[in-house]
């Protein structure tokens, strides 16, 4: 429909220079902005969902993160990659939310139960294991164990683990995103896997 | 952003089949449970479930729901076991009343949900993991998502948003905007009182009879037909024809297919890679600068004799390019010497907005109407 | 590098990082050398791998609808922000954008179209070489013709425009053999998908004839355009009891990449197979279809199509052990 760099690439299947896309978006090209969002939003939503375990909360983080990107894109100066910048925003929002949640959880367990995050979890997982009922049964128990092991991690350990294991980012990059050194990220991941191993050791 | 988790349990009921009667119907064991609860006027109702959902109007101020689950089982006890579990929960979340119906997840259990909503409700949101969604006439707005299955809507008073992971979408009427996506399948809209945005991610035909506002239609592969649009039409398909009966401005693009458009006013931008273009301009309207490009195909423009227009036509077909014009004002000449394109230029009725025509393989016709 | 310098304890602390590829070159060398000579640490590595595999299972994939909703909401929020800060109206921006992009020399549209044309080089009109069926027609029986357009005429007939050296209009009734020959070839061979769609649409009214139905089945199975395939499926709907139509629909289930096609195909195939006549058992569906549905269960990715298939299979008491 439109004739910006974004849609041309879409229709010709050619890769478009991300920098050109960002610059176009900075100049107000809505199409280019949309293209940028679509390039990353699935992994953003997945990250938020896995960390927060609630679709509503994950959608909130998605919304707020991309709105911040939208409002501040003109100030983006390419001194880090767009991905790093975006993830900085997303991880901060998630960490805030996780800490709040933790506090809330300690204050009242009733609220948590009423929201029914466990119910929703069941909803999502069912479709993943649907193909093999037997495996579904096995992994159900295991998943519960992993879930409780994950909740034993600190927000930061949880974040590093999520970024490294599920999002597949390199520790150096994770350090950059979280505003810390590669070494610190590594220690964090080390602690996380250590705790997980202890919690699940007899299970796998 | 408000991160507060304003969840408040209003009430909870279990859809435990152990308490619900299980009856034999043909080859099936069927368990049906239902209940109702009061809802405030102008409230928004959200239903999260799995299985097909039918929404109809209910009298009074009560939301009613009925979950019917059927399964094949050897005996009643086994059926009870299969249908057990799940639950219904009513809570309030961000100003919405949320009805969580979690039927059993086993694939061999067929679930049908019926919801009765009072007319006074402002919005109905349905999220089902899989299954068709049918909404009979409803005065408010709807927002519907299903992982797969058709979505069929009657006359909706407000706006319509819907998404299906697979299946066709049919909407009889929307009193507001329509914004709908299906991964694959036809989309059919009879009438919309607002703007319309339709998208087909993997292919299917899009048909809009009448829309009061702009129409955006995207099909990965398939035909796009818009009867009448009060605003501009934006249509694109990777393969298929595009047909616009009338619109105030047209932007149409097909990778392979004929484009037939009739424009009331506003600019017109049409491109097709392989296919013809037939464009009709209406008499006595205000046209604007426009462009018609057929990379490989003919371009025919029907121009009313009273319309003031400047024409810039370019035919780069090899061999003997042709521009056939009913207007003596258009002078046709080769621009250069060797294999240069044929150019037709001129001012009709003293000239006006510019009409650009381009083809690389075809004939350009300028017809007087 | 001497493996003796590293202890089992040190190695085991590093196994996880080894799997993540986060060790330095030297560290990795040392760990691998140690592993070669230490069975205990190799077992520990195996266990670590199992642990990682277990983590993988706990990941949640957000539903496609959740992503879609998020995009919708974001779009709405951004539109609201824009509306607040906009100087000119939407229409003016639209017009500005169009006029700016149309300098007299090289319109952007032309550039776009040119680039796209590279992709679709080799496009030609449908060449039809109808055989002897043409003798009765008032045509000069040219060697090759191109069907330019097909549309229904007022009297229930059909009008076909052919390209020769100039356009020629051929009119006639749908039951006219010559007309039908042209239509049947246009439905299969026209390279313009719009033309195939319209032709299929006209043929849909005559699907009771075997040759027409065959052509529609051909379009259903082979047309590259989903829009044309969906149209052909519409025409075949009343003939869903015909074995060849059922077979074609079953083929759609297994091989059509468009989930909308599969959704409609399963709905059609399983129409009438419901609780009211479930007692009839496996006779309700022919063996071929049952086999197809069983095969489908092992490959289908869409939850709705799977669930419908499963439901029907269970209903007809088909053997479910075979998949």
What can you tell me about this protein's structure?
The complex is a heterotrimer of chains A (204), B (369) and C (323). By secondary structure, chain A is mainly alpha-helical. Chain A contains eleven helices and no strands. In chain A, 79% of the residues lie in helices and 0% in strands. The relative contact order of chain B is 0.08. With 323 residues, chain C is mainly alpha-helical. Helices cover 58% and strands 6% of the residues of chain C. Chain C has a three-stranded antiparallel sheet. The relative contact order of chain C is 0.05. The C terminus of chain C is likely disordered. At the A-C interface, helix 1, helix 3, helix 4, helix 7 and helix 8 of A face helix 1, helix 3, helix 4 and helix 6 of C.
Mean pLDDT of chain C: 72
Number of strands of chain B: 33
Shape of chain C: elongated
Radius of gyration of chain C: 31 Å
Mean pLDDT of chain B: 87
Question: Helix/strand-derived class of chain C?
Answer: mainly alpha
| Helix and strand run of chain C | HHHHHHEEEHHHHHHHH
Total strands of chain C: 3
Helix content of chain C: 55-70%
The poorly predicted ranges of chain C are: 87-145, 278-282, 318-323
* Share of residues in helices of chain B: under 10%
- Helices and strands of chain B: which structural class? mainly beta
Q: Note the overall shape of chain B.
A: elongated
Global Rg of chain B: 28 Å
Give the biggest beta sheet of chain B: 33 strands, mixed
Short summary of the structure?
The complex is a heterotrimer of chains A (about 200), B (about 375) and C (about 325). With about 200 residues, chain A is an all-alpha fold.
List the helices and strands and how they pair.
The complex is a heterotrimer of chains A (204), B (369) and C (323).
Chain A lengths: L4 H8 L5 H9 L3 H23 L2 H18 L9 H26 L1 H7 L1 H13 L3 H19 L3 H12 L4 H8 L3 H19 L4
Helix pairs in contact in A: 2-3, 3-4, 3-5, 4-5, 5-6, 5-10, 8-11, 9-11, 10-11
Chain B lengths: L7 E6 L8 E4 L2 E11 L5 E6 L2 E7 L3 E10 L4 H8 L3 E7 L2 E7 L7 E9 L4 E6 L4 E3 L5 E6 L4 E6 L3 E5 L4 E6 L3 E5 L4 E6 L3 E5 L5 E6 L3 E5 L4 E6 L3 E5 L4 E13 L4 E16 L2 E5 L8 E7 L2 E5 L5 E7 L6 E4 L5 E4 L7 E7 L5 E6 L3 E6 L1
Parallel strand pairs in B: 4-8, 4-10, 5-9, 5-11, 10-12, 11-13, 12-14, 13-15, 14-16, 15-17, 16-18, 17-19, 18-20, 19-21, 20-22, 21-23, 22-23, 23-24, 24-25, 24-26, 25-27, 26-32, 27-33, 28-32, 29-33
Antiparallel strand pairs in B: 1-7, 2-3, 3-6, 6-9, 7-8, 28-31, 30-31
Chain C lengths: L7 H12 L5 H13 L1 H19 L6 H22 L4 H11 L7 H12 L26 E7 L5 E6 L3 E6 L4 H13 L3 H11 L6 H13 L3 H11 L6 H13 L3 H11 L17 H13 L3 H13 L8
Antiparallel strand pairs in C: 1-2, 2-3
Helix pairs in contact in C: 1-2, 1-3, 2-3, 7-8, 7-9, 8-10, 9-10, 9-11, 11-12, 11-13, 12-14, 13-14
């Amino acid at each position: 429909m439109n004739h910006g760099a974004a849609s041309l690439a879409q229709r010709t299947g050619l890769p478009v220079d991300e920098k050109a896309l960002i610059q176009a978006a900075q100049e107000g090209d809505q199409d280019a902005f949309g293209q940028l969002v679509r390039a990353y939003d699935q992994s953003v939503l997945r990250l938020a969902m896995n960390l927060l375990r609630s679709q509503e909360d994950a959608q909130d983080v998605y919304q707020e993160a991309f709105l911040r990107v939208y409002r501040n894109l003109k100030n983006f100066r390419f001194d880090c990659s767009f991905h790093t910048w975006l993830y900085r925003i997303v991880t901060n929002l998630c960490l805030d939310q996780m800490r709040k949640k933790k506090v809330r959880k300690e204050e009242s367990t009733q609220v948590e139960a009423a929201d029914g995050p466990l119910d929703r979890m069941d909803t999502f997982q069912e479709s993943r294991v649907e193909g093999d009922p037997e495996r579904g049964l096995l992994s159900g128990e295991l998943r519960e164990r992993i879930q409780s092991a994950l909740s034993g991690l600190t927000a930061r350990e949880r974040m590093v683990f999520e970024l490294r294991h599920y999002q597949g980012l390199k520790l150096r990059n994770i350090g950059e995103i979280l505003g810390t050194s590669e070494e610190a990220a590594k220690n964090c991941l080390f602690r996380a896997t250590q705790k997980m191993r202890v919690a699940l050791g007899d299970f796998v | 952003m408000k991160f507060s988790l304003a969840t408040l349990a209003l009430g909870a009921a279990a859809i435990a089949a152990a308490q619900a009667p299980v009856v034999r119907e043909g080859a099936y064991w069927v368990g049906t449970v239902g209940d109702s609860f009061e809802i405030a006027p102008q409230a928004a109702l959200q239903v999260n479930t799995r299985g097909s959902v039918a929404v109809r109007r209910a009298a009074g101020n009560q939301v009613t729901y009925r979950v019917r689950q059927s399964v094949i089982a050897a005996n009643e006890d086994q059926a009870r076991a299969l249908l057990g579990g799940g639950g219904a929960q009513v809570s309030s979340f961000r100003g919405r009343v949320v009805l969580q119906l979690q039927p059993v997840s086993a694939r061999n259990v067929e679930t049908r949900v019926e919801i009765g909503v009072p007319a006074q409700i402002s919005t109905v949101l349905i999220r089902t993991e899989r299954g068709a969604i049918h909404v009979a006439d409803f005065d408010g707005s709807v927002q519907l998502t299903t992982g797969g299955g058709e979505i069929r809507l009657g006359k909706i008073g407000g706006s319509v948003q819907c998404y299906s992971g697979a299946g066709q979408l049919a909407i009889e009427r929307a009193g507001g905007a329509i914004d709908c996506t299906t991964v694959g399948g036809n989309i059919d809209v009879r009438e919309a009182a607002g703007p319309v945005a339709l998208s087909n991610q993997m292919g299917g035909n899009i048909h809009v009879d009448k829309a009061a506002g702009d129409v955006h239609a995207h099909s990965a592969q398939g035909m796009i037909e818009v009867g009448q649009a009060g605003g501009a039409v934006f249509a694109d398909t990777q393969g298929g024809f595009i047909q616009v009966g009338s619109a105030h401005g047209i932007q149409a693009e097909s990778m392979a297919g004929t484009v037939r458009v009739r424009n009331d006013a506003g600019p017109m931008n049409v491109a097709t890679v392989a296919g013809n273009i037939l464009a009709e301009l209406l008499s006595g309207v205000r046209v604007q600068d426009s462009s018609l490009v057929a990379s490989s195909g003919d371009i025919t423009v029907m121009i009313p004799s009273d319309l003031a227009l400047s024409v810039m036509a370019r035919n780069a077909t090899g061999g003997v390019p042709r521009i056939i014009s009913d207007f003596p004002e258009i002078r046709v000449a080769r621009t250069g010497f060797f294999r240069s394109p044929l150019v037709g230029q001129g001012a009709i009725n003293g000239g006006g907005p510019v009409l650009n025509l381009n083809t690389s393989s075809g004939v350009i016709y300028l017809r007087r109407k | 590098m001497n493996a003796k310098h590293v202890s089992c304890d040190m190695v085991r602390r590093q196994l996880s990082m080894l799997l993540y590829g986060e060790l330095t070159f030297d560290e990795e060398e040392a760990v691998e050398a140690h592993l070669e000579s230490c069975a205990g640490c190799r077992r520990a590595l195996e266990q670590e791998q199992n642990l990682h595999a277990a983590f993988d299972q706990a990941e949640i994939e957000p539903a496609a609808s959740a992503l879609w909703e998020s995009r919708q909401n974001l779009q709405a929020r951004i539109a609201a922000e824009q509306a607040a800060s906009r100087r000119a109206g939407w229409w003016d921006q639209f017009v500005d954008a169009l006029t700016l992009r149309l300098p007299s020399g090289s319109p952007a549209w032309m550039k776009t179209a040119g680039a796209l044309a590279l992709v679709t080089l080799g496009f030609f009109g449908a060449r039809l070489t109808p055989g002897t069926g043409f003798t009765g027609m008032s045509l000069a029986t040219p060697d090759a013709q191109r069907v330019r357009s097909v549309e229904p005429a007022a009297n229930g007939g059909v009008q076909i425009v052919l390209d020769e050296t100039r356009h020629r209009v051929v009119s006639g009734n749908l039951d006219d053999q010559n007309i039908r020959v042209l239509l049947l070839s246009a439905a299969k061979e026209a390279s313009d998908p719009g033309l195939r769609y319209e032709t299929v649409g006209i043929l849909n009214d005559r699907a009771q004839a075997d040759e027409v139905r065959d052509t529609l089945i051909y379009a259903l199975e082979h047309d590259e355009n989903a829009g044309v395939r969906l149209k052909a499926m519409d025409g075949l709907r009343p003939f869903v009891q015909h074995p060849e139509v059922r077979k074609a629909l079953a083929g759609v289930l297994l091989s059509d990449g468009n989930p909308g096609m599969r959704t409609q195909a399963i709905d059609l195939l399983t129409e009438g197979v419901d609780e009211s006549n479930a007692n009839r058992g496996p006779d309700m569906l022919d063996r071929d279809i049952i086999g197809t549905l069983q095969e489908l269960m092992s490959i289908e990715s869409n939850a709705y199509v799977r669930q419908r298939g499963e439901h029907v299979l269970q209903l007809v008491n088909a053997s479910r052990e075979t998949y």
